Amino acid sequence: MSLKLGVPSKGRLMEQTFEWFGARGVGLRRTGASREYAGRVEGVDGVDLVLLSASEIPRELATGRIHLGVTGSDLVREHLGDWAQEVAELAPMGFGHADLIVAVPKTWVDVETLDDLDAVAAAFRARHGFRLRIATKYHRLVRDYLRAHGVADYQLVDSQGATEGTVKNLTAEAIADITSSGETLAANHLKILRDAPVHRSQATLFASRGAVWDEAGGALAALAARLGLSLPDLV
Amino acid sequence: MTPAEALAAELLAALRDAGAVPVATDILQPAETLLDLYGEDIRARAYVTHDPTMGEMMLRPDFTVPVVQAHMREGAEPARYCYSGLVFRKQEGARAREYLQVGYEIFAREDPAQADAEVFALFSRLLAGRGLRPVTGDIGILKSAVAGLETSDARKAALMRHIWRPRRFRALLERMCGQGPLAEPRAALVARLRVGEAVEAPQIGLRSQEEIAERVARLIAEAETPPIPPAQVRALEELLALKGSAPAALAALRAQGWDALAPALDRLEARLAALAGAGIDVDALPFEASFGRTNMEYYDGFVFGFIAPERELPPVATGGRYDALTARLGQGRAIPAVGGVIRPEVLEALS
Lengths: 235, 351
Known about the structure:
heterodimer, A: alpha/beta, D-Maltodextrin-Binding Protein, domain 2, 8 helices, 30% helix, B: alpha+beta
């Protein structure tokens, strides 16, 4: 059985992944018609290219259906329970940078830190009769972060898109979302808290700890040599 | 029947013999009540599911809440209840996700010391000969100490809210002394607020300009409140670190001469007398002032545990007093309550 390498199937993330491998002498190519999700790997034998949605790559790694995968470090931490038990980080790839941050309305002049947010959450609950709402799709990462910082009296409300608009739409009081430039936040009259972000994400090459490595081991060693990676113990 | 189930049945029979009425509760509990009590953190610990008509539901993470609700609905006073069944908790690693709990709860207005002693002595008798280490504590003493600090009511309320989160509690206490990592950002914020720069942005969201202005005023007033006296902070830290036999701990706390603690210490003394009367060797009974601070967040008085020594096992039994919980769940009505649970699987693993 060959080694299966999962990479994002479209967009800037796919292009940059192809560039990253190409710069290291491994050619990733899409094959067939332009809309067909098929591809091949040149320069190393025994590696199959699997084109997938970046958000499905963590799960495919966890089940072991792919051996290696490229996806955001945020998605792996959000979607896998004991992520370090299920995958190993082989290489941060230096693109796809985005910070998962907590943001509040700019008019909240009294709130700059999580210390403030916690105090405001207590007062908000006492006044409005429900817990202060934070809109996000990163439930696990944000909850762990807020618990570690001792923030109480909040609730997470699910927002799968256009999260920056939730405060204006009165479905949340604050948000936790990915940002790279901060422009969308500013346009929606939000500001980022000054604390360290929930997570600094970037595209990362991961290896599955759950995959069957017996027959893919040779291809992995060859690929790692070409990419200049040192390999962790995967099983 | 598994050995643990057989053990659960035996324990339940013993609790009935002690005078408790068996109660049953649903496994599916409305999520809203538990979320309101524990906050969003409960989602990391309890399994959440969804019912098309009932909305968000949780697989019972403990019995105390539904038992209190049942008592508030239809219970006579005083009351003793017992129960046995599965609870469900998310865990990291290999720890059990579903496990049995056998519990005993007393709802009584008279003589809380006697009720505390009754629960502890009963558990002590049921768990005798298993090589367990008992430990006791008292969240009421911690609350009295916070209430007795020489500082503003706003600060006391902020500390009281985080008594169950030791790291956050410490960070707040340090800031209130003008120290620690939160002090500088707070000072900088207050300095900016005093200048009162205008913000070029429209008001959005439910939190109103009035609420913002109120907190700005509070922050400025807070900055003008003198730091909590260092001697008081030291006394509080000594209290939190206190461990010893129960009588020695009581003597050490009395020796602090902290007037605000006197009523809570009187309650501890009455409890120790009641425990001695129930046949417990109180001179050998361990007391740890911070016991129950991290994971028993509805207890507000006596707390106890029975711990398997030198093993990576969860506590075999835990319990305590939760008077405030009955007030929150009773919508205005309240009744003093104390109880505890035993985990038969953990007990079985010891034998």
